[in-house]
Amino acid sequence: MNKALCLLVIGLLCFSATNAQEFSFGIKGGPSYVMGGQITGRVGGGTDFGGTVEADSKFKYHGGAFFEVRFDKFLLRPELIYSAMETEFDFPLQPSIFAIEKISVPLLFGYNVWGPIDIYAGPAYQKILESTLEGNEPNPSVIVQNSPLAAQVGIKAGFGRFELDLRYDRSLATAESYRLDIKENNPGGYGINTADFDDSRLNQILLSISFKIFDSAANPGRRKGGCYF
After folding, report:
1. What is the pTM (predicted TM-score) of this model?
2. pLDDT of 76
3. Quick one: pLDDT at residue 45?
4. CA dist 173 to 66, 101, 143, 191, Å?
5. Euclidean distance between CA atoms 189 and 178, whole angstroms
6. Which domains does the chain show, CATH number per domain?
7. Could you report the per-residue pLDDT of 61-109, keeping only the tens digit for each?
8. Is 81 exposed, middle or buried (0-12, 13-18, 19+ CB in 10 A)?
9. Sheet holding 178-181, edge to edge
10. Within its chain, how far is the Cα of 102 from the centroid?
11. Nearest-angstrom CA–CA distance, 196 and 220
């Protein structure tokens, strides 16, 4: 994101905060349930493994920050989230961990359905920081997406300065096969040699606890208009 785009985003947030009935910002974090991944072995010899292995889901974590503006029952909520994600492939000789670290920038649009309960959805830009598969040669790095876009949908409930948030994060990239060369034999082998990473996309369910560092609804006397940035 270049300097001009950053200034445009900050300007939009200032405009939203000036015209919103309420606004807040804070931090969030919690566990993630990570799903996805499929690898199929290539048969090049009599002992090569040619089966398909679906990855087992695992729990990891995420954390970040949010800014939210409200207009009556509607809300606009940009966020910045770091996610550590893992799934596990149960190969013939030993399991292999597929790990991804990424930064997500969702822009969420929501509606207050009742009391403290909001529902929301929106697009997210995702930047992969690192992606590795144990046993992949000559180095463990792998390609994991052909599009940086994802979609998120969820529900959250507010309790004073705290919120409980449950959402589904799904990659909008398409499945694209990627050639792997995995260490096959002992010592340290996985029992699979050349293979196709049929689908390297990972999706996740995120459970977050958020804390509002500032909330204009709790400090109505401080907000007189203008931009806080």
Report:
1. 0.85
2. 95
3. 66
4. 25, 16, 12, 29
5. 20
6. 3-218 (2.40.160.20)
7. 999 999 999 988 999 999 999 999 999 999 999 999 999 999 999 999 9
8. buried
9. 52-54, 38-41, 194-199, 178-181
10. 7
11. 58
